[in-house]
Design a protein that fits this description.
Four copies of one chain form a homotetramer.
Chain A lengths: L15 E3 L2 E3 L5 E5 L6 H14 L3 E3 L17 H14 L3 E4 L6 H7 L2 E4 L7 H7 L6 E4 L6 H13 L5 E5 L15 H10 L4 E3 L1 H5 L2 H13 L4 E5 L17 H18 L1
Parallel strand pairs in A: 3-4, 3-10, 4-5, 5-6, 6-7, 7-8, 8-9
Antiparallel strand pairs in A: 1-2
Helix pairs in contact in A: 1-2, 4-5, 8-9
């Protein structure tokens, strides 16, 4: 049986519209923001900067999956409200993670795109739940998910009725520990071939090292990514989570310039 | 900070009592049953056989996490009722998986031990939810979880108020594809040292090949496992899931004899 | 102690000259050829095509490491002679693998660059031996080598007296089996930072699938690779080895055009 | 085509005789010694202890493969002479590693069993070379070798004329970094089924942690290993290599007692 997410079932690319942005249409989309929403003032300041820098979609975690029960796990609904405020001010859509099937409704009220994180890629009840809403879902590849499992996770959402799925390659777990994960460039390219869904790259989680983020992002775009999602923080060294992989403002601006140069050249 | 699950925090072994069975007391406990509860008649027949064969705890999936949305995903509440019936008839406690935080209450009504599957090892909202009940939880190691992440997942449950956690090593994902997963014997032994919680082995999922299950189980017991959990099916070739790794009756009886011989010798 | 291959020991990039080609100088170098030298006529035909297409260095295996003792293992010295003939005709330098310390001398007589294959990355006696000659060495990353181990393997060669080492990322072994290996883009970028040696990419072995080779190559170049090494075969379906990952002529020409367009744009 | 190492080609188990020891005959063989031969006095002292403790074959490295070119790489021929002296005094056979095809002859003069290390499992010229001699070869599984590749490496030796191959599972490389490698118990059991060659376990390299060695060794024996190879050092904290995984004398004596108890019970 051919999967609903397969190119063999539907050959023309799925384009996902969020406000006036079209993901999957050729131009790589830039999603950026801090790992977690840490407070209103800092988030709004950052949102304004990102808007200015050319970002098209804001990211920020309100519900944060954390390996340790004692780590900062996000501001919850308070964080959702800050995201909504940032959206209002900048006019940019926002993406944020949902971890619990019981939270799908409320997260859907505040966010434009719901993210399913790596650790929940095979949380099948959650996949079914986001399959019932009418909002785009950004589905991260699991820490150790094969391509096939990743596509089947997307199939859960599509089969439940929601075709608006964006796949996100964010590195897989291997023996190499210099980087946080191993960014699977070829896996991303294969996903672009096998499915009609948009596929983006998250070089921040993939590498875990800010000095590598920019070049990996550029490589992903050159290989055909429909977008990139990058962690940016005004003061990475003070971030409550993922500081080591967050770009500072000037680093991010440099990345944006490289991508724009690349895009203008390829067109 | 020392974790609550750590030997450094509490040196004496946690013993988990389920009816008259004590897990973690030295004698390896035998948990067995089919992958999924497929129907009342077949399950009760099997339960009687397993009781006869010396099994102490019955297993069987009512809610089945499946990689594909089109695979058999269990009988749900109907399956729970069959498990309860088997418990009534045999007097044996039952363990079954819970996948959704909204199902914790109902699964807890029917089962003696709630299982968190590999794919949900970092489903933190589910971990918190089973941390609020007063029933033992069998926590399987994630497909690609490090020892540290596995113990931190257990910490979520204990920190939420439920100390009755049984760890279960079920193989990790590696490049080796002859076996379904790679059984991490040394990881299991290390978990026995690092934590005061009981640690058992699941050689069925670890190997995915019935001809290897018995010897891997025996190796785990010899290395100190507090128990083993094995898939058994009256007619493995007809199983709706995991037939290839399920032991037929006579194979299982042979394994039980080996373990009994080993146990009598070590005491 | 800082390694001799480290940027901390010597910050300025090592540029390796082979005839009039300079590897590491900024412009990505194109190395191409069939997996194995299969015969004089076919190799010379291909060499002429590759020269025409813009290739700067020819590759071709005379001594082939093969997993099975019964697979085609190359033409040996006969293959070396064919390579030398191709070099004479096209004027292009050639790179070929050496597997045995006793063959270093003879391979060095025919080839311009000696390749150490993945399986021999920690063949320390072979590393020492190619460290004693005055020819560039192309050192492939091992199947499961960490960055650190890869750099230490290079250190063996440099410490033995030969500074002309080119590192080649060719994919690492992970659980993902859709691709032959997992191309480690971030690892390649990190190697470019950590060492002063040139670092190139081999998308053919990394992916094992010809339809992915071109985009992975382009991604590697965009991320900063000093060159790429690609398998090309006039009739991939007839290749004695690695046919599935070899580009046909027209596919290769398309890749060359993409890279040229990219290069002209970035300069 | 069936491999020469396959059970399908030859069903009856290959038994390898070294002096009066028979490897593969049912009784697990104990091989022990320090990682490296560090000097005559200390090695002879240890050899006497090991003989006394019940060891059947002595191990000790004279040529040591080391990740770094600056690490202690063994005493070379001087080390071989010390091994020969230990053999003379204790009457026990010795096993030692050979890394270079040019050294096969001289190592064969001093040692009873030649070891091919993990890093050389696919050093095909070395495999061919040890296939030409009339001495048993202990072939370690590669760091990231599949079962199939491991058996094909053995096939190189057998196909070259030497049927006396002992396979040694020593842990594979995975994402888990608490242990040095991941001991693949099921892979060892599968190798026992797939091939007629003896298969032993090396829990020292597999775990890299002395506190885990004993229980992993016992698990391997219970699962059917034809023997174990263990690193022992009179003062592990002073060892020039692998001190962290070497058993002290009293730890080793305890392990020997456990294995003897296990053996007497299973017979």
């Amino acid at each position: 049986m051919e999967l609903k997410v397969s190119r063999k079932k539907k050959n023309n690319k799925t384009i996902i519209k969020v406000k006036d942005i079209e993901i999957g249409k050729g131009e790589p989309v830039i999603i950026a923001g801090p790992c977690a929403v840490e407070g209103e003032e800092v988030y709004l300041e950052e949102a304004r900067f990102l808007k200015e820098a050319g970002v098209q979609i804001l990211r920020g975690g309100a519900f944060k999956p954390r390996t340790s029960p004692y780590a900062f796990s996000g501001l919850g609904v308070e964080g959702l409200k800050i995201l909504a405020r940032a959206r209002e001010i900048t006019g940019l859509p926002v993406v944020t993670e949902v971890m619990d099937p019981r939270d799908v409704e409320i997260v859907g009220e505040y966010a434009d795109i719901l993210q399913i994180g790596s650790r929940n890629m095979q949380n099948f009840t959650l996949l079914r739940e986001v399959g019932l809403i009418n909002k785009p879902v950004l589905l991260k590849r699991g820490l150790a998910a094969t391509l096939k499992e990743w596509l089947l996770a997307a199939e859960y959402i599509v089969d439940s009725g929601n075709e608006q799925v964006i796949l996100c390659e964010r590195g897989i777990r291997t023996f190499e520990d210099y980087t946080r994960n191993t960014f699977d460039l070829a896996g991303m390219v294969a996903a672009l071939d096998l499915t009609h869904l948009p596929v983006i790259a998250d070089p921040s989680h993939a590498t875990g090292r800010r000095e590598l983020v920019g070049r990996v992002a550029l490589g992903a775009v050159a290989a055909g990514a429909d977008g990139i999602m990058v962690e940016v923080h005004p003061r990475p060294e003070e971030a409550l989570s993922d500081g080591g992989q967050s770009l500072a403002y000037e680093e991010f601006q440099k990345l944006i310039r490289s991508i724009k140069r690349f895009k203008s050249q390829s067109s």
